[in-house]
């Protein structure tokens, strides 16, 4: 029981010690372990029990308060069973539960996205911005960079001197 408590207590918080659980993680535990079923126990019930078992000025519950909260929800969740059977069934739900990761972002591969991001299909000036492997060329792909590496102050561009001399002859 303690391992399930600490699994959910540290979920989403790198600074958490695992000895106390906040209201958000309590609600997540109730949802992921299927304590909330939408009929007998809903989100409001979970929040009310959390507020009832925690200390007045506290925003978290300890392990003992956690056990007390489960005992309060057990008869409501398992209506046809005796109090002891309901608590045992509640403990089994919590021990089997793991924090689930809902809505983890994945790369979209639907529709025309592949066509839009395939750099081999680009045309015109956009074609020059990527090399054969699809990597961007950076500034080199966006601008015509002049090679002004000559030692003469009025040097215009590499290779222009020879053309100029031919035109004058």
Give a short overview.
This protein has 169 residues and is an all-alpha fold.
Q: How does this model look, in words?
A:
By secondary structure, the chain is an all-alpha fold. It folds into two domains: 1-96, EF-hand (Recoverin, domain 1, Orthogonal Bundle); 109-143, no CATH class. It has helices spanning 2-9, 23-32, 43-53, 63-77, 83-96, 113-117, 139-142, 160-168; strands spanning 21-22, 60-61. The chain has a two-stranded antiparallel sheet with strand order 1-2. The protein is rod-shaped and about 110 Å long. The mean pLDDT is 80.
Distance between the termini: 96 Å
| Rg over CA atoms | 33 Å
CATH class of the largest domain: Mainly Alpha
Specify the number of helices. Answer: 8
Largest sheet: 2 strands, antiparallel
Give me the CATH architecture of the largest domain, please: Orthogonal Bundle
Looking at CATH, the homologous superfamily of the largest domain is EF-hand
Rounded mean pLDDT is 80
The CATH topology of the largest domain: Recoverin, domain 1
Low-confidence spans: none
Element pattern in H and E = HEHHEHHHHH
Side by side, the strands of the main sheet go: 1-2
Oligomer designation: single chain
Give me the count of strands: 2
Helix content: 40-55%
Work out the strand percent: under 5%
InterPro entries: EF-hand-dom_pair, TPP/p25
GO molecular function, one term: tubulin binding
Subcellular location: Cytoplasm, Cytoskeleton
Protein name: Tubulin polymerization-promoting protein family member 3
